[in-house]
Write a structure and sequence with these properties.
With 708 residues, the chain is an alpha+beta fold. Among the domains are: 9-87, Immunoglobulin-like; 98-178, Immunoglobulins (Immunoglobulin-like); 627-707, Golgi alpha-mannosidase II (Immunoglobulin-like, Sandwich), CATH 2.60.40. It is built from 15 helices and 35 strands. The chain has an 8-stranded mixed β-sheet with strand order 4-3-7-8-1-2-6-5, with no helix packed on it. An 8-stranded parallel barrel has the order 18-19-22-23-24-25-26-27. A 6-stranded antiparallel β-sheet has the order 28-29-30-35-32-33.
Length: 708
């Protein structure tokens, strides 16, 4: 039934509250009386308030008896005109949350020759399971039985493995067909769920040495398609999971690409943009469209456009698992970018079709909130939403063996949920790395409950993208022509000193919770930003300034984060928001990798230095305060003195200078015996002895000196 002709409407908006709306065109100014039919009883409702609102006369009524969830319930007025009581705002009350919280497993369960299908739909009055044979299209229909906590259940034979399935759910007299919110396998373009046990798809696993502390990580952000789609990537499976299984790939000129290149970079973690099933790309014709992947359709199923056979539900699972293990085999940990803050389309998603109104936040007027900017905000603070996210996180670790999560728009989620996620994830992997965007967004959740940077003290062991580091070093993201320190702004020196030392001034971040970066998939790349605000500069100087910015990311206290291709001046041709731009804008340009090979080697050696030198990787502020002094040597030249660091590296003392100007300054050196590790133009292999008692600083870039 798609349309119900109701003379007036009634909604259960509170645990014992019913709202009645009578169209003013049909309203007669008379004494109204309303009765609720509960089983064999007819109960008169108490009218607490009545008033006109827009085109309706509104009555707020109350009753004392228990409402029969799971049954169609009717009421009538004094004239005997009946209407059904629809489940309304009660679904977002604390009482509803407490009454229907279910701790057990949901989704299909494959045990002992049978498949148990379970769906949480406490407001529904009927649920059916629809099966379709994948070849013959034969259909089967099973009626589910309602159990405790609003969970509907059906046991079917394992002979239905590989069949597609959907749920037919009746809420408020209207039937809707939905995929399984917990479904782990889907058909092409995610139109149906598939009865397939991911545990049956086994790939060989490889262990990666445990991370001792978060600051030991060097994160490298990749989009699966961007990684290999370039014509000269030397990779056969372009744009696919399988690209990560190809080793020793190279350009036509013999420069490494793919996995071989990543190994040369020396990073520790590969952060992959979302690869759960998302909208925006036709999986049958992926070459016709592009998307970053922040349009989640199914949170537990993997994306099909990256598969060599999107029509085979098992192939995409196999290839995604193999991708992770290939990265593990070569020594990388894998961070999955996850998007639990919103869905692609609220009205058509499984959440809304199965439990209308529950999974999303609504404003004071009852309309869906839009803090995410995409039309809906996930209500993570509700018990079954929190459970869903936690179950999903556990699933990705168990089945895909990922080593961390990057939470898109984490500030939409609540602190309690994020702490539970961290706790659950740690039971699987003690060195799990969780990071997120802690922006404060306008969603109807109390300020002190949001998982924002301002509440970092309430969230344990979760890192935040340090946007202040980005904007001070690079320049404001929201003012295109604003220049940061690395682009020659000499008025930022004081804040730079704070940022390179762990950012404790910024929302009480610690080195282990500050993710330092100057570019990511979002907004302008550093190169494009530099062209916008310093387009008058020669290319050589722009390169020097970007090398400076990248070195500051790698050598500052905190967790360094690199955007793939940043080391060879990645450009998106000026496009700031390339989420659906074509491949020629988004792809990794392996020709630039050739052109700037020497600059890449410089960055690789800085990464190696960071990994070998624990003084760049202090885990807490106390170590920083004990071993680091920060000053300056003229405008635009930040000087960091490291002392008594022999317990953390082969050196006893070290000086790092970040120079953003060519103004000549002379840096006095305490005592003698200093060697140069690097100057802005090169790394001095084996170290170059400084013969004088000072060092001339007149280049843009990074200087590192040390004493053994």
């Amino acid at each position: 039934m798609l349309f119900i002709d109701r003379k007036y409407k009634a909604y259960l908006d509170g645990w014992n509250c019913i709202t009645v709306l009578i169209p003013l065109d049909d309203f007669e100014d008379e004494q109204k009386v309303f009765y609720l039919h509960l089983q064999e009883k007819k109960i008169q409702l108490k009218i607490d308030h009545s008033f006109k609102v827009e085109k309706y006369m509104k009555y707020s009524c109350s009753f004392q008896e228990a409402f029969p969830f799971g049954e169609v319930c009717y009421m009538e007025d004094e004239a005997g005109v009946k209407t059904d009581v629809q489940i309304g705002a009660v679904i977002r009350t604390k009482e509803f949350d407490e009454a229907f919280y279910y701790e057990g497993r949901l989704g299909p369960q494959y045990d002992n020759g049978e498949i148990v299908c379970k769906l949480w739909a406490p407001a529904a009055t009927s649920v059916k399971l629809k099966l379709i044979h994948p070849v013959t299209n034969e259909e089967k229909l099973f009626t589910l039985t309602r159990g405790d906590k609003g969970v509907w259940r059906s046991s079917i034979s394992s002979k239905y493995l590989q069949w597609t399935y959907t749920f037919l759910v009746c809420n408020n007299l209207i039937w809707k067909e939905a995929e399984d919110p917990y479904g782990a396998a889907v058909t092409v373009n995610g139109t149906k769920s598939v009865l397939l046990d991911p545990r049956s798809i086994i790939v060989e696993k490889y262990e990666v040495p445990a991370l001792q502390k978060p600051t030991d990580a060097v994160i490298y952000e990749l989009h699966i398609r961007d990684f290999s789609i370039h014509p000269d990537s030397g990779i056969q499976n372009k744009g696919k999971y399988a690209a990560f299984s190809e080793v020793m790939t190279a350009t036509h000129s013999g420069f490494s690409t793919g996995i071989a290149y990543l190994k040369e970079m020396g990073v520790t973690h590969i952060e992959l943009l979302p690869f759960n099933d998302f909208g925006g790309v036709d999986e049958e014709h992926p070459e016709k469209s592009y998307n970053w992947g922040y349009n989640p359709l199914h949170f537990n199923a993997v994306e099909g456009s990256y598969s060599t056979d999107p029509h085979n539900p098992g192939t995409r699972i196999q290839e995604a698992k193999e991708m992770v293990q290939q990265l593990h085999q070569h020594g990388f940990k894998v961070i999955a970018d996850v998007v639990y803050n919103h869905v692609f389309l609220r009205e058509t998603c499984p959440f809304e079709k199965t439990v209308p109104g529950y999974f999303f936040r609504h404003d004071e007027n009852g309309f869906p909130s839009n803090g995410t900017g995409v039309g809906n905000d996930i209500a993570s603070e509700r018990k079954m939403v929190q459970k869903y996210i936690c179950d999903s996180i556990a699933y990705w670790i168990e089945q895909y063996d990922v080593d961390g999560f990057r939470f898109d728009l984490m500030g939409i989620l609540d602190t309690e949920t994020m702490n539970k996620i961290q706790s659950i994830a740690r039971t699987f992997k003690s060195d799990i790395l969780i990071l997120g965007e802690g922006w404060d967004l306008p969603t109807p959740l109390a300020h002190d409950r949001k998982a924002t940077m301002a509440n970092s003290g309430a969230i344990k062991d979760i890192a935040f993208f340090n946007d202040r580091f980005r904007d001070v070093i690079k320049g404001s993201t929201f003012q295109a022509e604003d220049c940061g320190f690395a682009l020659g702004n000499e008025h930022t020196d004081d804040e730079v000193k704070q940022l390179v030392a762990g950012s404790k001034h910024y929302f009480s971040l610690t080195p282990s919770t500050a993710v330092n970066y100057v570019e990511s998939h979002d907004n302008h790349t550093f190169w494009d930003k530099a062209l916008l605000c310093r387009g008058d500069m020669e290319e050589q100087e722009l390169r020097e300034r970007q090398k400076l910015a990248t070195s500051m990311v790698l050598l500052s206290q905190g967790i360094p984060f690199l955007h793939a291709g940043q080391e060879f001046y990645r450009t998106k041709k000026g496009e700031e928001n390339s989420y659906q731009s074509p491949d020629d804008i988004n792809r990794l340009d392996w020709e630039r990798r050739e052109a700037y090979a020497e600059d890449i080697k410089y960055i690789q050696k800085l990464i190696a230095l960071r990994k070998e030198n624990g003084a760049f990787r202090f885990a807490d502020q106390q170590q920083i305060d004990q071993h680091i002094d920060i000053g300056s040597c003229g405008r635009g030249k930040i000087v960091i003195h490291y002392h008594h660091i022999q317990d953390y590296c082969p050196w006893n003392c070290m000086i790092v200078v970040f120079s953003s100007t060519r103004n000549r300054e002379v840096l006095p050196l305490p005592s003698s015996g200093w060697k140069i590790f690097c100057t802005p133009d090169r790394v001095h292999e084996g170290g170059t002895m400084v013969e004088s008692s000072d060092l001339s600083l007149e280049q843009i870039g990074t200087y590192i000196l040390y004493k053994e």
